[in-house]
Recover the amino acids of this structure.
């Protein structure tokens, strides 16, 4: 269901937190994430300072197209992140959320971010996904992904975007088909993979896997117990070196249990090879059928 985060909604949000409120936040990552989105898109910067962890980290790998390291991050520290957000110069923000889910520490939200700037009557609609990590009732990390190249009419990224699209789409199909041979062809030797949302399955789950050999060995074991793996892509975009696929992932376990779970897959491509891959999946959704 689509949800809209309007600037005006922040008026109803209390900024301060008593002791009881703090305890409630610690046990409610979804509530913390929702409040953060309201404050962030409402540009309530003083309140955001209270909600960020002191050592919070912000990054937006897709913002590398602006060729400003500070914009893409990582930016560390609550004050530095808020200063960055103020520096964006946004006059109007409207996030139309198509899907949101929280699993463990992670809260993932995707949709369309409409932004406007002072002195301009034209708003820009950005396909958008953000990943929030909530620790002890505070935002410890935020990772944004947005389609900036076409939305802002940026020149000079057409070749990179086209190359990324070709490799990422072929790689995604090989991933879903459990085709380890094609995956090996497309993976960089030092590829970095992680599905942090899998941490809900306990120690050892959801940790980074580095290197094509290690990743393919893990996938060989995984694919032995999974069939009918697929991704119903509802929205996707490619911006320079990053491809983002958003929708519902489907799979069947060896025991016959079938799952359909909201998911966001992010693939980074450089020099014709997949150098990084992140999956975010709502594993809180149980079996279907």
């Amino acid at each position: 269901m689509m949800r809209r985060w309007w600037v005006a909604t922040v008026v109803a949000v209390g900024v301060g937190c008593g002791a009881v409120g703090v305890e409630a936040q610690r046990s409610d990552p979804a509530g913390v994430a929702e409040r953060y989105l309201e404050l962030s898109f409402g540009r309530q910067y003083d309140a955001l300072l209270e909600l960020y962890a002191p050592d919070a980290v912000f990054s937006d790998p897709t913002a590398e197209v602006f060729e400003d390291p500070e914009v893409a991050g990582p930016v560390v520290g609550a004050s530095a992140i808020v200063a960055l957000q103020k520096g964006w110069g946004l006059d109007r923000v409207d996030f139309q959320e198509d899907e949101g889910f929280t699993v463990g520490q992670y809260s993932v939200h995707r949709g369309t971010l409409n932004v406007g700037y002072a002195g301009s009557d034209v708003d820009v609609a950005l396909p958008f996904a953000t990943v929030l990590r909530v620790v002890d009732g505070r935002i410890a990390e935020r990772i944004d992904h947005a389609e900036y190249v076409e939305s802002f009419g940026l020149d000079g990224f057409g070749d990179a975007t086209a190359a990324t699209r070709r490799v990422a789409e072929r790689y995604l199909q090989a991933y879903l088909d459990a085709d380890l041979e094609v995956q090996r062809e497309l993976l960089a030797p030092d590829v970095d993979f992680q599905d942090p949302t899998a941490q809900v399955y306990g120690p050892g789950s959801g940790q980074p896997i580095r290197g094509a050999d290690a990743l393919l060995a893990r996938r060989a074991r995984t694919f032995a117990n999974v069939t009918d793996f697929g991704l119903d892509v509802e929205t996707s975009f490619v911006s320079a070196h990053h491809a983002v696929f958003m929708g519902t992932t489907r799979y069947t376990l060896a025991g016959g249990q079938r799952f359909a779970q909201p998911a966001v897959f992010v693939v980074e491509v450089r020099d014709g090879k997949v150098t990084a891959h992140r999956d975010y999946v709502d594993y809180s959704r149980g079996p279907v059928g």
Remarks:
- DSSP finds nine helices and 13 strands in the chain.
- Confidence is low (pLDDT under 50) at residues 4-24.
- The first strand starts at residue 3 and ends at 5.
